[in-house]
Amino acid sequence: NKILYKDQIMERTNIVDIEDRGYQFGDGIYEVIGVYDGEPLMMDEHMERLARSARELKLPLPASISELKNKLMQLVEANGLEEGIIYMQVSRGTAPRFHEFPDPKTPAVTIAYTREEARESDVEVRGASAVLAEDIRWLRCDIKTLNLLPNVMAKQKAVENNAVEAILHRGDIVTEASASNVFIVKDGELYTHPANHYILNGITRRKIIDLCGALHLTVHEESFTVDELLNADEVFVSATKLDIIPILKIGGDTIGSGDPGEITGKIVQAFRSLYKKDVKN
Ligand code: PLP
């Protein structure tokens, strides 16, 4: 498999410098982009978010967004990727280890690789369980940074409980999940946490909100409580890597009827038809 490292596409080798700031401080940003039929999905939206993350962290990108997009396309072609993901990260570069930003001439280090992965998994159809976990992250969850330790701890809790996700809450308020956004359905309408500094504004989340418009479904970008989550008619999580997964159980509580919900099903169909030509609405 080939990787994109700095500005070159090369064979995969061990190339992380011990003083790469991404490695030492988590000082960098990343994106995960789905690929289907050899085509990156919602590439523009992902790259716009990367640019925003870079601006928020005062991290100068090593190339223009359109150059980065071209490189990623070349990588997908070089690896012959049909279905899977592109992972891309940009760190603030390699410099002697001091907390403050390095010399502004220090070039950012860009790295990207692809991974083959089926876009459609069994849990998307059958649904899965989630657990609850306190959201202990910092207050800039809107930036897609490499600092993911609280997310890692939460996801591990989910896995140890045979669950697919950990749904995070700050006190009473549900924010998102360890690596996905959360939606609930109550009385035929959807609710999801507003896109502010408490959540990552998922590309999948935004697309679902758009699709709901076309499906004549009302979405409230309003926060909801843990109690409202547990008493919802339907719950699902959304992310590039997961697509949309119906959540049937949270901890010991069954959600709604305990089966994937009808509204979730409609949204899953509509979402898949965006990239799968053989899915009918
Ligand atoms: N929230 C968090 C914390 C995430 O890590 C992710 C994706 O990795 C998402 C939400 C979903 O974002 P997207 O739909 O852009 O993949």
From TrEMBL:
Entry superkingdom: Bacteria
Cellular compartments per GO CC: cytosol
Entry keyword set: Aminotransferase, Pyridoxal phosphate, Transferase
Signal peptide interval: none
Pfam families assigned to the protein according to its UniProt record, in alphabetical order: Aminotran_4
UniProt-listed InterPro entries: Aminotrans_IV, Aminotrans_IV_CS, Aminotransferase-like, BCAT-like_C, BCAT-like_N, Class-IV_PLP-Dep_Aminotrnsfr, D_amino_transT
Family note: Belongs to the class-IV pyridoxal-phosphate-dependent aminotransferase family.
Function: Acts on the D-isomers of alanine, leucine, aspartate, glutamate, aminobutyrate, norvaline and asparagine. The enzyme transfers an amino group from a substrate D-amino acid to the pyridoxal phosphate cofactor to form pyridoxamine and an alpha-keto acid in the first half-reaction.
Protein's name in the database: D-alanine aminotransferase
Source taxonomy: Bacteria, Bacillati, Bacillota, Bacilli, Bacillales
